[in-house]
Amino acid sequence: QVQLVESGGGVVQPGRSLRLSCAASGFTFNNYVMHWVRQAPGKGLEWVAVISYDGNIEYYTDSVKGRFTISRDNSRNTLYLQMNSLRPEDTAVYYCARDRFRVVVPSAWFDPWGQGTLVTVSS
Amino acid sequence: QSALTQPRSVSGSPGQSVTISCTGTSSEVGGYDYVSWYQQHPGKAPKLMIYDVNERPSGVPGRFSGSKSGNTASLTISGLHPDDEAEYYCSSYADINTFVFGTGTKVTVL
């Protein structure tokens, strides 16, 4: 069955870096756009970034532009989120989610989702 | 990129109907017929319930329905079940290749 498994979360000091991974299985990974969505403790969902099927197109929410980089390795069926210059407000559970198309279009959806990985930014 | 506005909570008895609103602007909700809705139980990942304003993925019960008027989308749960108690989020494409979620609504089954 379709499965997404995130890893790489943990506790990190402000200003440091962390790389999250999302291992995909049960579907043809290189046929789909992929997203990262985060959820701060006790708060709502926030879309973070998206990448096209081939990795050539990326878009970000304003608050992470210049600090976060989304990427993918289709040979490893894995999605990544490189997070640099981390701030306390980046503390959240980070989810990866599959889109329904190969290219980034307005009619996107987020389905399915992984179980999430917790990132805590604290000194 | 401000979050879409949802009521903080709604409630109803089993078998009743509840409606959750999701208000944005012409830059997202009002500008595109691509609103989706997600259900999230505590400690769990979100689940897609509605896409393209009013379409249900296979496996989602027919008591879930969506609609949109102007800058406001709505999710209606007709005939509440106890396991419908959860947090619900709307989402929409926003201008310039970004996406936005709603603030979330807690549905309580009394």
Oligomer: heterodimer
Number of helices of chain B: 0
Number of strands of chain A: 10
Q: How do the strands of the widest beta sheet of chain A line up side by side?
A: 2-10-9-4-5-6
Distance between the termini of chain B: 34 Å
Name the beta content range of chain A: over 45%
The helix fraction of chain A, in percent, is under 10%
Distance between the termini of chain A: 40 Å
User: What's the story with the biggest beta sheet of chain A?
Assistant: 6 strands, mixed
The averaged pLDDT of chain A comes out at: 96
In DSSP terms (H or I, runs of 4 or more residues), the helix count of chain A works out at: 0
Q: Point out poorly predicted stretches of chain A.
A: none
Pairing-aware structural class of the strands and helices of chain A?
mainly beta
* Count of β-strands of chain B: 9
Pair with the most extensive interface? A-B, 25 and 26 residues
Taking Cα atoms only, what radius of gyration of chain B do you get, to the nearest Å? 13 Å
Q: What portion of residues of chain B belong to β-strands? A: 35-45%
Q: Give the % helix of chain B.
A: under 10%
Q: What sort of overall outline of chain B do the alpha carbons produce when their principal axes are compared?
A: globular
* Overall 3D shape of chain A: globular
Order of helices and strands of chain B: EEEEEEEEE
Describe the structure.
The complex is a heterodimer of chains A (about 120) and B (about 110). Chain A has about 120 residues and is mostly beta strands. Chain A has strands at about 5, 10, 20-25, 35-40, 45-50, 60, 70-75, 80-85, 90-100, 115-120. A six-stranded mixed β-sheet of chain A has the order 2-10-9-4-5-6, with no helix packed on it. In chain A, strands 1-3-8-7 form a four-stranded antiparallel β-sheet, with no helix packed on it. Chain A is globular. Chain A starts with a strand and ends with a strand. With about 110 residues, chain B is mainly β. Chain B contains no helices and nine strands. The interface between A and B is medium-sized, with 25 and 26 residues.
